[in-house]
Design a protein that fits this description.
The protein is an alpha+beta fold. Helices cover 36% and strands 10% of the residues. The protein contains 9 helices and 6 strands; from the N terminus they run βαββαβαββαααααα. The strands form 3 sheets. The protein has a two-stranded antiparallel sheet with strand order 1-4. The chain has a two-stranded antiparallel ribbon with strand order 2-3. The longest helix is centred in the last third of the chain and has 13 residues. The protein is globular, with a radius of gyration of 19 Å. The two termini are 39 Å apart.
């Protein structure tokens, strides 16, 4: 799909540009201009436009959005994922079924922001809510601190179970929360061999 603007309805509020997860919408002369090559058809702009001035239309030619993890050193992908406390084969975007290894591959190939990663992999082009957190963790693990765009694209980085302070663990241990047991189980998941390593 591709976003198209109905300029007769558009009031130039710029909401569309502020919600685009790949920054495919630029404002020129107070009106949105959509870069068709960058648009990933997520419909965030259509859904958020207060004037219903954006419509999703079928593209003439479909295309695939994907970074092939096999084109990057598997050990580097695994190292980056483990540093971010993610298994390489773990799905981090349920809407697009994007795995951590694909995002790691995009980062190792030079992507330096959630927007660049989304453009290359398609991650964050579904609900756009939960997958920002593992993306930020992977960027952080790579030593990259991206600059947040002027908009509503990011929900932010949330703490993982490994980052919960001891005082919080102690406070909730009597209420049925067993963080240390959760950490042990999740560490086992992280240590599991990936299928790419088993193939070798």
């Amino acid at each position: 799909m591709l976003a198209q603007v109905d300029y007769d309805k558009c009031i130039g509020c710029q909401t569309c540009a502020k919600v685009c997860p790949v920054l495919a919408i630029k404002i020129e002369n107070k009106k949105p201009v959509i870069n068709a090559e960058m648009c990933r058809g997520c419909a965030a702009c259509e859904q958020r436009c207060p004037q219903y001035a954006i419509n999703m239309v079928k593209r003439e030619e479909p295309f695939t959005v994907y970074v092939d993890p096999s084109t990057v050193d598997a050990e580097k992908i695994e190292e980056l994922c483990k540093k971010a406390r993610l298994h390489p084969e773990q799905i981090i975007c349920y809407c697009t079924a994007t795995r951590a290894e694909e995002v790691a591959a995009a980062i190792l190939k030079g992507a330096k922001s959630p927007e660049e990663i989304s453009l290359q992999t398609g991650v964050r082009t579904g609900c756009k809510v939960e997958c920002i957190e593992p993306i930020l963790r992977l960027l952080e693990a790579a030593g990259i601190t991206p600059e947040k765009p002027d908009g509503y694209q990011w929900y932010g980085r949330t703490p993982t179970v490994w980052e919960i302070p001891e005082s919080v663990k102690e406070k909730y241990s009597s209420r049925g929360f067993y963080f240390d047991e959760d950490i042990k189980l999740l560490d086992k998941v992280l240590a599991a061999k990936s299928s790419r390593k088993e193939d070798k």
